[in-house]
Design goal:
Elements (H helix, E strand, L loop, with lengths): L5 H9 L12 E7 L18 H9 L1 E3 L2 E2 L5 H10 L3 H4 L16 H6 L4 E7 L26 E5 L33 E2 L2 E2 L8 H15 L5 E6 L11 H4 L7 H26 L6 E7 L5 H5 L17 H4 E2 L1 E4 L8 E3 L3 E2 L3 H9 L17 H4 L9 E8 L4 E8 L2 E5 L8 E5 L15 H25 L4
Parallel strand pairs: 1-8, 1-9, 2-12, 3-13, 4-5, 4-8
Antiparallel strand pairs: 2-11, 3-10, 5-6, 6-7, 9-11, 14-15, 15-16, 16-17
Helix pairs in contact: 6-8
GO molecular function, one term: arylsulfatase activity
Protein name: N-acetylgalactosamine-6-sulfatase
InterPro entries: Alkaline_phosphatase_core_sf, Sulfatase, Sulfatase_N
Length: about 475
Amino acid sequence: MVMNLRPLAVSALFCVFPVAAKAEPPNVILLMSDDQGWGDVGFNGHPDLLTPNLDEMARSGAKFERFYAASPLCSPTRGSCLTGRYPFRYGILAAHTGGMRVGEITVAEMVKEKGYQTGFFGKWHIGWVDPDDVGSRGYYSPPGHHGFDYSFATTSAVPTWDPGITPKGWSQWGQKEGEPWKGGAPYFENGKPVSENMSGDDSRIIMDRVIPFIEKNKEQPFLATVWFHAPHDPVVAGPEYKKLYREFGSTRQNYYGCITAMDEQIGRLRSKLRELGLEKKTVVFFCSDNGPSDGATRKGIASAGPFKGHKHTMYEGGTLVPACAEWPGVIQPETIVSARCATVDFFPTIAGLVDFSFSSKERRPIDGVDLMPFMKNDKQTREGELFFGFRRLVQEIDGKALISGDYKLLQEAKKGGGRIRLYNIAEDPFEERDLAKDKPALVKELFEKVEAIERSCQVSRDGADYRY
């Protein structure tokens, strides 16, 4: 059983990350969309959806063909982006079921040690951002508790147009059409509710805070983490964006329109970096937090591309997401990364760029790997396993998946416990042929690896990685 933990044990014992170069460490921008499927972007072949700025970003830098979210739903994935660790390690196993522990070391805390200014913008969803909000699921754990100097954040979802107002036709989550959305002030700036500049496109509202942060910190290194709400429900697009898709019905107009509006703001960000002369000093990453929503996928509006599944499933469509990265002069244009990469890889990648290593008291398992060798074409194959999952035991849901080599073992996320399936995703990337009955020995071997990773995560979750 020890051999199954070897990739984890190396990180746990040493936690030393490769240094990319002796050049000045870059600014870092982490962009993430919400519930955007692998197929919901032009650079992955969508025939109708307009994402010209993301497409140009992918052409100018690296496009990831197989990039995975750590979980098929938002909150667990978000924690993995900041810590480089599987969600099962830090205890955020589903949405609204916890908050980021202050004992975790985030990318923001890491780069602050190197003199970076840090800002968070958008949907947090790994703890409440309102100090007066008392909820039964989760707790107050805002960005400021995790290394961010500045934050403009919501606890969870807001409408993608006029985020403080419940949109027309919406009646879920206890909200009523036309009434204030969750009190009418869902955004908090450094712990205080925001009422100004809160109408129109939500992605623009977010970027209106990102741009000044970058302008203010243009003479020093910075980290900007920008997590958009688009295209998570409630999905609403402004009139000018819906007009771009006038040949479609209103639901598709809103879905496509809000993604195009987000893309426009990403273009605005890229233009600002060039205006300030920062583009060659800045690495920009983009990905989604999980696959497309269940409802939008069933309606045929959202797309996981050719892959099976969607949000809340352990199939490829639940965790495989659109992703690209840009760093002019370092990442060559039209780079294609075919190796399997994941959100847990952001932390070790940035650690390498800023020459960070844990102190002896802070050492802990890191589950990701450095992406720079893949983006610079120095490496083609990922070593070790990738583990994904989410858990709502109160509903008897315990979905897990492991990729080891070309094989993927998954346990369906279904009430009462889903069945175990096995796929060769190199030969069968769309998961059409279940090999579990044909290869019982391999199923047993991979399931033992899952159990070993879960035990390691349990030890972390129970406090082994935290100082007392």
